[in-house]
Each structure stands twice: as C-alpha cells, then as structure tokens.
Amino acid sequence: MIKTDILIIGAGPTGLFTVFEAGLLKLKTHLIDALPQPGGQCSEIYPKKPIYDIPGFPEIMAGQLVDNLMEQIKPFEPGFTLGDRAETIEKLEDGTFVVTTLRGVKHQAPVVAIAGGLGSFEPRKPPIPNIADFEDKGVAYIIRDPEVYRDKKVVIAGGGDSALDWAIFLSDVASEVTLVHRRKEFRGALDSVEKVEELSKVGKINLVTDAEVKELHGVDGQLASVGIVHKEKGEIKMEIDNFIPLFGLSPKLGPIGNWGLEIEKNAIKVDNSYDYQTNIPGIYAIGDVNTYKGKLKLILSGFHEAAIMCQSAYQRIFPDKKYVMKYTTVGGVTGFDGSKKEAKKEVVKAIG
Amino acid sequence: MDVTIKIKDREGVVHEVQAPTDMAMNLMEVCKAYELPVEGTCGGMAMCASCQCYVTSDHQLPEMGDDEDLMLAEAFYVEDNSRLGCQIPITPELDGLEIELAPES
C-alpha cells in the first residue's frame, strides 16, 4: 500500500503544481496517471506547441513547461504510479481513502485531488468490426514489452510519431515489420520519417502507403492474417502474427465517473466559492476536470485552484493547527530531500 | 453579423444555430458554445480530430492546410467531405452551411 498525504489523480500541469503547493505546506504527494510519462496533454498531444498565456512566460513550449514543473517539484519528492489508471475508490472508517488502479496498486491518503483533465488517455481503436475479438490475441494498441514481438510478423498502422518510432524499433526485433498508412505523407518528426524511408529501402520495413487495414482474420481465436485495402492495388492479404494500430490516444473520463461524484457535462462539479471540493468531503477536483459557473479551462486556472485546494487539504489533515501562509520570497523552499532554496542575504556594509 | 448554420448531431437531430462572424470563432467552438457533443480535446490545433464533421452543403470552404490534411489521414470514419471544425473560421460566406458531426472515436 502506497501511503501519502494528498493523492493526486492526473500528472498534467495542474497535478504537478499541486505537488509544489502541498510541499510548501509539508504535505507529501503521490500521483497516478494513465500515461507512461508525466505532463498530461502537454506531453502527449502538443509537446512542441508554444503556449502564450502562462503568467511570466511570454512563450513556452508545452513540453518545456512540463520539464520546468518537474524541476520545480523535485525537492518535494513526489511518488508516481504511471501507465496505470485509477479505477476504484473506497472510504475507510478512519476517513481516509484507498484508490486502487487497474493493475491493482493500492494508494491510501486522507485527501484525494482529482486533476484528471479531460480524463485518462485511452488508445483510439480503428473501426474494424471484429477487432475486439483479437485484443491480446494478436492485437495490441500499446506496446508494453517489445520482446513480445521477437521474431514475429508484425503490422503497424498509423502515420504519427508512435507508429514511425515503433516501426523503426521493431525492425530490429520482429522478423517482419509492415507499416501501413493511409497516405504517403507522415505527420511524425522529420528524422523518424527519413529513418523509416531508409529502412524501407534496405527491406527492413515493408512500407505500405495509400492503404488501410480493413479486415482481421484468425485461426482458433488467434490473429492470423489482415486484409489491407490499397488505393490502386485493391485488396492485399497478409499472413501475420501481430497487428498494432497506433492512432493516438483520446481522453475518456472513465471510472472516475462512477465514484459518486456530481458530474455535469463530463466534468466534476466543485465548490468554487471556497476550496474546489466535490460533493464527497475530502475529494477535490482541480484543473480542466472540474466545472463551476464561469470556469475557464486554462492551465493558469488549474495552478490557482491547486494552491487554494492545498490550503483546505491542510486544514482537513490538521484541523487543530493554524497555518499562516508564507511567501516563498520570505520562507524560501525547503525540500523533503534536505535541499533549501532561499533569497541571498543582502550584504550590509556601512559607508564611511 | 451572424450566419446560420445547420448542424446534424450523431442522433440525427438538426440544430439550426446562429454563429457570429466577428468573434474569431471556428466551427468547433460554435458547436461547443451550443453544447453540441464536440469534445475539442486539443483545443483547436488540428491534433485530435474530435471535431471532425461532414460538409453536406456545397459551400466554398477555405482550403485544407497540411495539419488538417494529415490529421484526417489518421482519423476514423473519414469521407471525401470530411473537415475538422476547428480549422473552419466563421465567415459571412458560411451562411446556410450544413454539416453533420462524424462519429466519436
């Protein structure tokens, strides 16, 4: 059981900044995120896009903002459960919560902060009628262990970075790699596109463009072949072991929707006159995942909500303590790792 | 000045909405403003295709940019008349436009 003070669900910018605000109050934090890396949408969807409305940053790349936040929160040593989704929540008799993930990891905390954005990112599944029948029987939407594909015949579909990068990587692992894309143009990074082109010329990647995987066929329930429809050549049948469609991820509110929280328009209703608490005391919702009159889904709103929420969480955890807010310019930042940042003392020197 | 746009949702219900031409809005934002089921996950960067729609009237629309074109190359349920709502600014020429929301994916 992982124990912490504030369990944060969602490691996007709001969740990450919550670590900082909690840390100033000496509260420990742990984050759960369905994605394998922190940063949420900023890392997953638009790391190379500039953001212009982060106060104090005239322009910053989304990926850089995440890197900066990770650096800022490092002294507070947050724990991470990544690549796993928060599934169920249970309230114990002592008032604390236990959140269990899809893989069965249990987390206990007196306060839960949901900073889940638009939800957890789930792979987008192509609309091939019987695809669900072959899930884990030759079809996978996420590559967890590349060794699974050793000496196998693999078909990857998609035109973005993950399709390109995995085709390159698996060309050294699998016995055959075929990359199927609907166009000749790819959306991924230029050097990945060039690498795929190179590997296709030397026969290490079988590149099939202007084509789409339309049919899946199995033998004894296991995937055995795919039917590819090519714009000019028509139907191509290919015997394979594995099919990996990589069409990006789309967010779904998911199991949090069944936690008994008041939901409105796919977002969690909170008390915005005070502390962004939900209808369940001890569970807060901050950032894009919450809603209230006048809500603005901006990163800066999430930062503000995180600060307020942590103050309320402190009161909840230590009802008898009186906390006085300290400015970092005055109090500095003392990390759990023993580090201390503070303003340099001015040198006083008399004249004359 | 406002233009009138007919939007058929995924249940087949047609919503006739008024969209302002002077607010720098796009079709995805208009759908969201009227609380139609368009997610707009990426916020309008042509990076998610959650605002894909089919243009069913014969209006002259702005030409597709590379971002939109390549995103549609990876989206599902794409037809010849598919567009991303976020890439279509609301202009006076759009008056009477008819669109249909593509299935969710």
Compute the average pLDDT of chain A. Answer: 95
Give Rg of chain A in angstroms: 24 Å
Shape of chain A: elongated
Cα-based radius of gyration of chain B, to the nearest Å = 12 Å
State the strand order across the main sheet of chain A: 6-3-2-10-22
Give the strand content of chain B: 15-25%
Query: Describe the biggest sheet of chain B?
Result: 5 strands, mixed
Helix segment tally of chain A: 7
Low-pLDDT segments of chain A: none
Oligomer: heterodimer
Q: Structural class of the helix and strand makeup of chain B?
A: alpha+beta
What's the total helix number of chain B?
2
Please count the beta strands of chain A (DSSP E, at least 2 residues each).
25
Cα-to-Cα separation, first versus last residue of chain B: 34 Å
Helix fraction of chain B, binned, reads 10-25%
Distance between the termini of chain A: 65 Å
Biggest interchain interface, per-side counts: A-B, 23 and 17 residues
Kindly state the percentage of residues in helix of chain A.
Answer: 10-25%
Unreliable parts of chain B: none
Strand proportion of chain A, as a percent range, falls in: 25-35%
